[in-house]
Design brief:
With about 450 residues, the protein is of the alpha/beta class. Helix content is about 50%, strand content about 20%. The strands form three sheets. A five-stranded mixed beta barrel has the order 1-2-3-5-4. Strands 7-6-8-9-10 form a five-stranded parallel beta sheet. It has a four-stranded antiparallel beta sheet with strand order 12-11-13-14. It is flat, with a radius of gyration of 63 Å.
């Protein structure tokens, strides 16, 4: 479909959504897959796992996205400023009306692409501590069983077997075959390494002969590196020549410059071993001779210090008698001291009868004091009560009556005012010797 054919008639009104849908259909239908060489900028990895960035050159830029399913296959970490060749499709994001490249694959540009991947993986594993010398295991000095992970047809394995046969025929050598070059090599090497661990050798040699960086790239595989780092069996990496370095070299417990050098490290020469044993034999004989001389001198010195056992026994008997006599004397002196202490304590003792008599006398005195105090207190209370009764009696209304006065009540209430009664009310008049009932005839106010 051409742009002219898809164009809307002038009299047709489109929504924004319809317009973006038409643009998307045109762009995605006609452009399709594109290859772009550009520089990455504004790189942002999203929490969803997708990568969002821009691809730019000196004059233009375009937005790009690489979804998680595609970016998980990358062998390098994208970053700003990295020049890449990207393969993808032009798409339109309708809600914003923007177009972008949906990148499906991407590789760094130039001869340094593999080297960049190498450096990125090296830095990642280094930060995790896989290269630390503290975690590397010692290679056994005289291994009895050696496993070799390499190609069974390469020159490297022949060199290793020749050296092992010449220098250490008694060592058991087990070849775990694998391919060591090509895209499928890395997983096969990892599988062979696991098989070598199951054999439980004293040491594992992994490697191959020299070649280009592409040839040896399978030894830069992250999974293989982690297997080597996690192995409980000491591992020697022997990949390429002395100037060649791979990730395996850094994670292995020991790096040999060549496969032949690895064989020499684990296969000590028989002549060297015999020479070492001879030296040890001479050293042992000399040490034993010197030790015997020293022991002989020690025995001679101790023999001079020896005494007659009978004389020693007599001395001990005399010593025992002396100690026994000293013990008897000490016990006698101690008993005399104790007797004197008992006598002193007896003289200080008071008889129970005297104690009881003294306590009884003291009790009688206290009883007498208590009786006197009680009598005195009782007399004081009695006098106080009499004084208070006299005072109370002096304040009694009856005393007033005795002197010629009377007390008048009406209906049981004391009369204080003529307003409390009226004519013909019955009142009670209490005099000294009785009560008089009277009727009120008249009440008169006193003039003030």
């Amino acid at each position: 479909m051409s742009l002219e054919a898809a164009a809307a008639p002038e009299n047709r009104i489109l929504t924004v959504e319809q317009l973006n849908m038409q643009i998307r259909s045109l762009i995605e239908g006609q452009i399709g897959i594109v290859w772009i060489q550009a520089e990455i900028s504004n790189f942002k990895p999203h929490t969803s796992g997708h990568f969002y960035f821009s691809l730019k050159d000196s004059k233009s830029q375009i937005s790009a996205v690489m979804f998680r399913g595609h970016n998980s296959k990358l062998k390098f970490k994208p970053h700003d400023g990295l020049e890449v060749i990207a393969r993808g499709r032009i798409t339109v994001y309708e809600p914003r009306g923007s177009y972008q490249v949906a990148v499906e694959s991407m590789e760094p540009v130039g001869a340094g692409a593999l080297q960049k991947q190498f450096e990125q993986l090296k830095e990642k594993l280094k930060l995790e501590g896989l290269f630390d010398s503290s975690r590397k295991k010692a290679i056994p000095a005289h291994p009895q069983k050696v496993a070799i992970v390499t190609s069974p047809t390469g020159a490297a394995i022949q060199d290793i077997l020749n050296i092992m046969n010449r220098r250490a025929k008694a060592v058991e050598v087990i070849v775990v075959p694998t391919i060591v070059q090509g895209a499928a090599a890395a997983p096969q090497i990892a599988e062979a390494f696991v098989k070598a661990e199951r054999i439980n050798p004293d040491v594992i040699i992994i490697g191959r002969g020299g070649g280009s960086i592409e040839d040896m790239w399978c030894f830069n595989d992250e999974k293989l590196a982690r297997l080597i780092a996690a192995s409980k069996i000491p591992v020697i990496s022997a990949v390429g020549h002395e100037i060649d370095f791979t990730i395996c070299d850094f994670v292995a417990d020991l790096r040999a410059p060549t496969p032949s050098a690895a064989a020499e490290l684990v296969a000590k020469s028989s002549a060297e071993i015999v020479q070492k044993l001879t030296q040890l034999d001479r050293s042992l004989a000399f040490s034993m001779k010197k030790r015997m001389e020293m022991m002989k001198q020690s025995v001679l010195h101790l023999s001079k210090r020896l005494t007659d056992p009978k004389k020693k026994l007599q001395d001990l008997m005399l010593r025992s008698d002396d100690l026994f006599n000293r013990l008897e004397n000490a016990m006698a002196v101690n008993i005399n001291h104790l007797k004197k202490d008992v006598q002193i304590l007896q003289s200080r003792l008071v008889s129970p009868k005297q104690v009881i008599s003294s306590l009884k006398l003291n009790l009688d005195k206290k009883n007498m004091r208590l009786q006197n105090l009680m009598n005195s207190n009782l007399q004081n209370k009695k006098s106080r009560i009499q004084n208070m009764m006299a005072l109370l009696d002096s304040l009694s209304p009856m005393k007033v009556v005795d002197r010629g006065f009377s007390i008048t009540k009406s209906h049981g209430k004391l009369l204080k005012s003529i307003s409390q009664v009226k004519a013909k009310d019955i009142i009670e008049v209490q005099v000294n010797d009785g009560i008089i009932e009277a009727e009120v005839i008249k009440s008169t106010h006193l003039k003030s």
